[in-house]
Amino acid sequence: MLGLLSCDGLYIPDPIDPRIPKYTENGSDVAGAIINNICWTSVERFGFLTAKDKPYFISSALTDSLVIQFNGIMGYENTTIEFHLKGLNIRKFDDLILLKNKKIQLDGVMNFGVVTDSYLGFSPNASGMEGVGQIYFRNVTFDNSSGTHILSGTFVFTETDSSSPITEVSYGRFDYSLSENSNFRIE
Amino acid sequence: MGKKLSVFFDSILRLNRLLFVSVVCVFIFTSSLTAQVAFIGGVNYTNERNNNLIENQEPRTTYHWGASIRYYLLKNYPKISFQNELIFNQKGYRQVLDQKYFFNFDYISFPVLINYALTENFSVNTGIEFSKLLSSNIKRYTETYNDFDIGLVLGFSCFEKKGISFYSRITYGLLPLLDYYAIDKVGNFTGEIHDLKNICLSVGIKINICNEKIRFYK
Predict the structure, then answer these.
(1) What ipTM, to 2 d.p.?
(2) Between chains, do A155 and B55 touch, taking CB under 8 Å as contact?
(3) Per-residue pLDDT reduced to its tens digit, A162-183
(4) Closest residue, chain B, to A21 (C-alpha)
(5) Do A19 and B99 contact (CB within 8 A), yes or no?
(6) For chain A, what is the domain count?
């Protein structure tokens, strides 16, 4: 039902680098980044009972961890940018407001970012060191009428696993409108 | 039958071409008075000046068209005239990254110019151009770009007393087009960007449609 009522993401090209979306804080349902000089974009699209490139926030109360999945496309391949964050105390959907104006340093161990194939998912690399950088939740607002959170921010990280080439994620930005039933899960 | 029709159409086309060339010749060689109201049109070689903001930026060739009116306000200075125009003016640039990205900014421009006739067939002009952004190929462009610009104009025109004359001018935009966030490499917000200023070299022809001098003095 939500799929029928929702609008597709609004992709407005960035005025400086049109390969990625412009930074907005409107809940445009888009994200973008440059991964090793190739653009990765996520534009949420809704079909009949289906949704494409939907972001997910998965919280675990037991381990106090939050996994954020931004699903998108790089070239012609489905690619997910994932963040594994700890100690944020996000236990329910309403707690997402706690992320407002939070800059989280990705140390590669406790907090990290990874680029994964959308189908295979995340598998830890041998060194135990994942993407190092930053994710910044610049603005988080809650819309009472629709019951949605709008999360907007930026991210940058670098994966330097010795067994594979360096993955550099730069100019990352996201602007998603999240609803409890559609985008948020508690494990 | 088909061949006859083809010959017939060819002869009509030739006639039309001849008519067009004749009209142009009449305009160029018989108009002796200064034309004051004219249609103008031509090409723009346009770009956006900026502080190393746009990577792999290239200028574009676009177009402009409109109308102009010239009038004489100063009795003692017949070589000085004033000129107003209303022009549909496309500006912009392109950016070459993984593909070519085109940025079109369609303005309605209102230049206010002062002309000085150096010789009978050559005059220089300068003035200010006020421009209002009407449309763009960028989605929701009004949320990213300023819709008003003021530019300094410097140019010249040749053979203005003929039916068809030529002009060229450079317009140097003064107001920043872009208002945006400044985001550093780590993703921090370091302020605001107010950048991208129009620069446009225009070359065109002016087709005079009214040959009366407009004077505001007796």
Answers:
(1) 0.85
(2) no
(3) 677 889 999 999 999 999 988 8
(4) B139
(5) no
(6) 1
